């Protein structure tokens, strides 16, 4: 039986501890995923219990049931598509289970119908917790740029690059939210304390629509590389000095080459389409560390350090196990993971499991950011020359010319443990994966 291409490349599955800086291509056996998924087999029961737990108003409950019902209806259909069984645990990102063949777009309908039913469901975040209420407020930033002008990627107000993101389909895809400075324990481990300065972080991963604007501006290739020194993260004690001309060689030769490269996955787990389509609000995947750096430099930002990203994900001194907190009872409603993002049961893996951004407001982080876990890994600035985080860390970054970089958050096919804020994964900087994306950070 044919395996997913990434399984052929890497039978153990690319993951941290598998990629070693000095032995690129060498991977260790993956960790057993245990029986976590056993807790999530009955989505309807979950939905009911979560709704009761939230004590939602009757109207909101009805709305939720409707939208999820659509998800389920949409998700059952794709199971009829050709599905190739890849051994459990062998999933590209630890996902395992069934890896879908090409096509299988049925689940997308489910996701979109879920979003369509969101007019009322938009109230969900404020009903879940105080911090979630902050996310609702953040949606309001769409109408009024905060201080700085709209990032270049959203100035064209095109699909996925305007005000059509999130569950309600009206949030600013380029929303940027402040993250207060503070001291916290990286990976929720007191052995790795860190202090970060206040900064800003994009609410969402970079969408296909925003990356399309980047390409339309003639960017991202050797024909128009970033200016030397641009895109430097200013919260690294001067260690990140921005774009280096030597990196130009890591960019695609021209636009045609870039467009082709963005179809990195032969099984069509790509989100990029040559023409604008149904995936404009999905995260751009198949991008390299260098392309993400170039994008963020053009868009007025820079890649976050892993300390910055983890700070936002754990909610600083709240030390949340997951971005939303510690609750594990309703995770399928908080993040796209384990191939459930399209509403299907666990491990029914389809390209639709790489969902649009912002469809899981119950997974909101302390400061309003969404998708801090799930859908696709967030690439950070840090190089991978040592597994252990740096100590001490005061706006620290591990920054060199190493081949690997550190990534956080798990993906749409990742097991639950990879969504936790103590999980990070190393991948080569120049590699392209359907489960890796990124988001930009910005100065105050
Ligand atoms: Ca699925």
Automatic annotation (TrEMBL):
Region (Disordered): 80-157, 219-238
Domain Sulfatase-modifying factor enzyme-like span(s) in chain numbering: 178-415
Feature: compositional bias, Gly residues: 87-145
Top-level taxon of origin: Bacteria
A GO molecular-function annotation: formylglycine-generating oxidase activity
Pfam families on file: FGE-sulfatase
Full protein name: Sulfatase-modifying factor enzyme-like domain-containing protein
